[in-house]
Design a protein that fits this description.
The chain is mostly helical and about 375 residues long. It is built from 14 helices and two strands; from the N terminus they run αααααββααααααααα. The chain folds into two domains: about 5-100, Serine Threonine Protein Phosphatase 5, Tetratricopeptide repeat (Alpha Horseshoe); about 160-375, no CATH class.
Length: about 375
């Protein structure tokens, strides 16, 4: 392979790496180093996309064999050398590549740092001394903690923050910022707020319909009945949400149990709760839009349109749960997970439909009520 062809391979690999297409980048860069084992750039970028700390360390060593003054490789080896057990996942981000081949100040151009403990001169990119591992920038931790508490008092990330990303279908940002906040208490509060938002949207829809309807003028009596319906159905929504949470948590945990590097159960359960919380307002909005459309266009078959709405919410729930699992566990095969979640939810829908047809009248009333409190406006 000619030198020009190798450079094309390396450039394509770098482009894929920047797009975070790691498998494609690794394949291209391995072809490049196989044809040109002395290609410094290919080895450096390969260190950013290969799996495993030892593989990354080997790539960085090859870079230094070719060019002992490569600051990015030195930074990478220093980072990996000081990586504590249990934090190996941080290496997948390849932080030593910050500033590589972009307009930011090169790390090699940073002023040198003197270790306050042993006096060793360290490169400007270093945060720990290469000789004694002392921090090169001693910090007053107590002072910083007090500053953060004062600055962040009353500004804890809102439980409703994921809803905006969910509505925009930016599913990754629904869950990623929430991982560090995982707790059972926050999970329960998320579901409670999701149920409250769903019910408030239903109430708003009812008030809107009553305002524009000629036969349902707003009155104190109507508002009293609406308040009573709101409170009673809020309890139903809370029960449904809190009952769905452990069921979906256990089912999805079983689905991903074979994954390598399975994440914490605490994070898994919390992100399922976030998915339920984010799904509820979206379900309310979709249900209200459907209700308005069938009122404005009476010729639309109600069963058909209801089936379409249920289908949309079904696929949306699959997307939310899949992304929650991807965030919690870094799935190797998200397509398989989506399929299993879809089959499980579809099975639940079929069981629900079966019971709706064949169950005793009392149970049928309960099942219909469950759909009404999710998809229809409040009906005082």
């Amino acid at each position: 392979m000619s030198k020009r062809e190798v450079e094309r391979l390396v450039q394509r690999g770098v482009t894929e790496a920047r797009l975070e297409h790691k498998e494609e980048a690794e394949e291209l860069l391995r072809q490049a180093v196989l044809s040109d084992p002395q290609n410094e750039r290919a080895w450096l970028w390969l260190s950013a996309v290969v799996e495993g700390v030892e593989n990354q360390r080997e790539c960085l060593r090859r870079v230094l064999e070719i060019n002992p003054s490569n600051s990015f490789a030195r930074q990478g080896l220093s980072f990996l050398g000081h990586l504590r057990p249990g934090y190996e996942y941080l290496a997948a981000r390849a932080p030593w590549m910050a500033g590589a081949e972009d307009d930011r100040l090169s790390l090699a151009a940073q002023p040198q740092r003197i270790c306050p403990r042993c006096g060793t001169t360290n490169p400007g990119w270093a945060y720990l001394c290469n000789r004694c591992a002392a921090p090169l920038e001693p910090l007053d931790v107590a002072k910083l903690a007090r500053k953060e508490v004062r600055a962040g008092w009353g500004k804890r990330p809102s439980l409703t923050r994921p809803w905006g990303s969910a509505i925009r279908l930016d599913l990754e940002h629904v869950f990623v910022p929430e991982v560090a906040l995982a707790s059972p208490q926050r999970a329960i509060l998320a579901i409670v707020l999701g149920a409250l938002a769903l019910n408030m949207l239903r109430a708003a829809g009812t008030l809107g319909l009553a305002t524009i309807a000629a036969d349902r003028m707003l009155s104190l009596r109507l508002l009293d009945r609406l308040t009573a319906a709101f409170l009673s159905e809020q309890l139903i929504l809370l029960v449904l949400g809190l009952a769905a949470w452990p069921v979906l948590t256990l089912i999805t945990r079983w689905i991903v149990h074979g994954e390598v590097g399975l994440g914490e159960f605490r994070v898994h359960a919390y992100l399922v709760a976030v998915a339920i919380s984010a799904w509820m307002p979206v379900a309310a909005i979709v249900g209200l839009l459907w209700w308005v459309i069938i009122r404005l266009v009476p010729t639309i078959p109600v069963p058909l349109s209801a089936g379409i709405v249920v289908g949309l919410l079904y696929f949306y729930s699959i997307s939310l749960l899949r992304q929650a699992m991807q965030t919690a566990h870094g799935l190797r095969s998200p397509g398989r997970t989506s399929g299993l979640i879809g089959v499980t939810l579809l099975g639940g829908l079929l069981v629900y439909a079966f019971l709706l047809v064949l169950a005793p009248p009392a149970l049928q009333t309960i099942l219909v009520r469950a759909i009404q409190v999710v998809m229809l406006p409040l009906w005082p």
